[in-house]
Amino acid sequence: MKDKQITKLLKAEKKRQHEAINLIASENYVSDDVLAALGSEATNKYAEGYPGKRYYAGNEIVDQIENLAIERALKLFKLNSKKWGVNVQPLSGSPANIAVYQALVKPGAKIMGMHLAHGGHLTHGHAVSFSGKFWKQVAYTVDKKTEKLDYDALMKLAKREKPAIIVAGYTAYSRKINWKKMREIAESVNAYLLVDMAHIAGLVAAGAHPAPFKHAHVVTTTTHKTLRGPRGGMIFARKDIFVKKKLKSGKIKEESLFDLIQKSVFPGMQGGPHMNQIAGIAVALGEADTVKFRKYTEQIVKNTKALASELKKLGWRIISGGTDNHVFLMDVWNDGDGITGKQASDKLEAEGIILNMNTIPYDTRTPFNPSGLRLGCAAETTRGKKERDMVKLAGRINTILRAE
Ligand code: DSN
Fold this sequence. Notes:
- By secondary structure, this protein is of the alpha/beta class.
- The protein has 14 helices and 17 strands.
- The radius of gyration is 22 Å and the shape is globular.
- Bound molecules: D-serine.
């Protein structure tokens, strides 16, 4: 690269990534093949529309790239293409969620999503995001005692609030999610069930977490977390569930959920898709459809359990008592006897351990300096770490956090 300043910065970032221990639950390290696709000539192409239906000429190759990504996504998640469609154009997870609400939820209607401080996401209806400005959030929480989802409480809340859509899938929830129960809750109030599986998509793909497709109307995901692809998003939606709309002429028009999603992504909110990103997603989906990837996801879960249980042995409180997936929350504040999440994250960063401070359920502190830390093992597992490394790492974390 001729640009000396950017070359220097990119080298420095590569070195930083190489030297740090990365426990950020939403990050991962892509393969050289994914990087090659991202840095390819596909970035030069404008391709507004969908394969075979573009508004620009010269799309014969990128159409094949997008079709391959679609084919691989459906195959990886074992979906029948008559029942499910997938849109691989969302630029990331937030745009994917906007596209779903725009397609299926009337402005002002209610989105029932997990409270951000309990492990939800900004786009699940939080007041500071578009999702809480154009729609109204009905926030649910985890149970105060178990710190897990309480499906009976969710059912009661849904029946009282009557949301138009219920969002399941979280950024800081360490337990298996019962999709069947979530669908029953949605069904009881005639709401859509949107599963945002961004964090656990890789685990779902490889069978390390139950798949939501039997129960969800729509599933969104990012492609860069446990799925280990480039930054990006996908929306899976049912092709065999139809919504009736009365036209001005009085005629009734039926459109499938997938058709509505397609229109919502383009032209509803995005312009030309990033074809280099879609090529990278196709590569990652191919990589995820292998025995090697299945073993990788099994190792993520083993590593995360090992890290959580060792920290627990060392006296730290793990939210909900443990983890079933790639992430967990640790209480470092301990009702004022410990240190704040910010202090803990800073201390660890100074020693080369990178993670994020996080609120814990029913936190008495603020998100800017909360009581907890979020720890995830997908990235370190990519680097070949095993349970014994996690036990050692727990010891290091404990020593750093307890040092005066
Ligand atoms: N998905 C968030 C995270 O978990 O880090 C960022 O939006």
